[in-house]
Amino acid sequence: MSANTREPQNDKQDQLIADARRNREQREKDYREQTLKLYPHICARCGREFEGKKLRELTVHHKDHNHDNNPPDGSNWELLCLYCHDNEHQEYLDEELPGKTTPGRENKPAPMQKPFSALEELLKNLKK
Ligand SMILES: [Zn+2]
Ligand SMILES: [Zn+2]
Fold it and tell me: How many A from CA of 18 to the centre of ligand 1?
């Protein structure tokens, strides 16, 4: 094994990104499956029922909006349909608008930046 035509450095980076992405997807799949086991397949907001193919439209919402907070008892998860999920985040964003802060409430930084998009951007530029 001496002929190595690929650059090992790029290989490693590709591997890293692929791994990170796979881990994240796997994790999301895991907690979705768990939530579907824990809760009835009904949107917690509008009460619509989902089954079969439609089940795809039912998504897992994190009550505290922290996707890293995944307690196994499901206390941070809620099943919402795509529409209600959208609304939920819309309301949250409105709430978090600067200038709308309630006195006494801490102005904390956004909990979820996309950790990988920045990395991918960086690597894209490196490969040019
Ligand atoms: Zn709904
Ligand atoms: Zn959500």
Answer: 33
